[in-house]
Amino acid sequence: MENKLKDAPKTKDALKQLQADMRQLQALLAEGGRVERRPEAPAAEEDMGAKTRSEAAVQYSVSLPPTENGAASYKTGPVSVSLMQTEKVTDEAAAQLGYALSSPQKVSLLRALLGHESESASALGAAADLSTGSLYHHLRDLMHAGLIGQSGRNRYHVTPRGQKTLLLLLALAVEK
Fold first, then answer.
1. Are residues 15 and 56 part of one domain?
2. Residue 144 in domain
3. Is residue 77 exposed (0-12), middle (13-18) or buried (19+ Cβ within 10 Å)?
4. CB-based burial label for 127 (10 Å; 0-12, 13-18, 19+)
5. Alpha helices, DSSP H, located in the chain
6. Does this model's pTM top 0.85?
7. Do 111 and 74 sit in the same domain of this protein?
């Protein structure tokens, strides 16, 4: 117990730094900027090995500013996921999400919906340069994964899960 209390300030500092880095990354992405990679601190990896599965966590927040056309912004507060929580995710659920993001066309569809209240199927097909058959195949996969929803006849919207997933995917894709 005493070691945990001693390590608490280090952990809080590391989490604050991670949150600050995520805010910087989000701001740069929103402005179309580029992100410079900083050297990682080896102490952070050592600290993770000492933590229990319930204490170790990934923390992030996602925000999307309002668009030029006035569509609402999207923002989460700090989100914390422990290793215990990730162990409860089935391989099927993780693979389903991975499959929903497995093609450039599906990512294009999500991007086309991001920042819009809803879009027609024809507008989405044009934005992603897809034939009607391919369009509905990809839309079905995205809906099945809970990343988009249908807001009317042939109208689609991105769900909060879809917004969060796409923004995290794009943020991770910045680092190569």
1. yes
2. yes
3. exposed
4. middle
5. 2-30, 42-50, 83-87, 91-100, 104-113, 121-128, 132-144, 160-174
6. no
7. no
Q: For residue 103, tell me if it sits in a domain.
A: yes
Mark whether 114 and 70 lie in a shared domain.
Answer: no
Judge whether 119 and 128 are in contact, CB under 8 Å: no
Going across the sheet that includes 148-152, the strands are 119-120, 155-158, 148-152
Report in angstroms the alpha-carbon separations of 1 from 7, 8, 51, 54, 57.
10, 11, 12, 15, 19
The rounded distance, in Å, linking the Cα atoms of 164 and 159 is 9
Reported as a single tens digit per residue, the pLDDT across 27-81 is 656 555 544 444 444 444 444 444 555 554 677 777 766 666 666 566 777 777 7
